[in-house]
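Subject: for your reference before the review

Hello V.,

The reviewers asked for a structural picture of the protein, and I figured it would be easier to keep everything in one thread rather than splitting it across files. Below is the amino acid sequence we used in the manuscript, unchanged from the supplementary table.
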Amino acid sequence: MQSNKRVTISRGNRKLGAIMNVSTEPVQCCPKGIPCANGGCYALKSLRLYPETRRAWAKNARIARTNPRSYFSQIANSIAGRRPRYFRWHVAGDILNVDYLRQMCRIAAHNPRTQFLVFTKAFHIVNAYENTKALPGNLAVIFSAWPGVRIDNPHGHRIAWMQDGSEDRVPQNAIECPGDCENCGICFRLPKLRRDVVFHKH
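And here is what came back from the structure prediction:
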């Protein structure tokens, strides 16, 4: 397959450790009007500093939009071949539409031994999907909250709170991120634990 048609699927990075993941473009593939788009998104730093990462994310976004069948087929084949314990969607970017989420769910359902995780601000897309169908049990969908952002959460998703000192909605039992994804893995289990997570801005 030509390299410009091949989805870049990472086997991990410095932050996640050895956790397979796939990303698209931050901001361009995110819901409009989110506050982190104005310089607060950590993925924008990688976009600026690492040209290879920037090109890979842009390519993934293009394939996801123009040839979603190939995009998801490549991801599904990679997961089936490697059988990872964990897989994370969107270190950068977000769920593009309901069909995109439907394919994420299909992949999770076909790989029950892999735990999947996505942090999302695309609340309306997740809600639209769940209004008609349940999410697979091995796909943890965590709503991302920034101070001042209204959270439309009728299905009771766990929330990842960004704490910059002004957020006053964080539950007392929220788990503070220890910053060791590979060895912690707790975010994959938040729905079963029925607890939120809080990330302190740095």
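For the response letter, the relevant points are probably these. The CA atoms of residues 175 and 197 lie 5 Å apart. The chain has one domain: 3-200.

Happy to draft the paragraph if you're swamped.

O.
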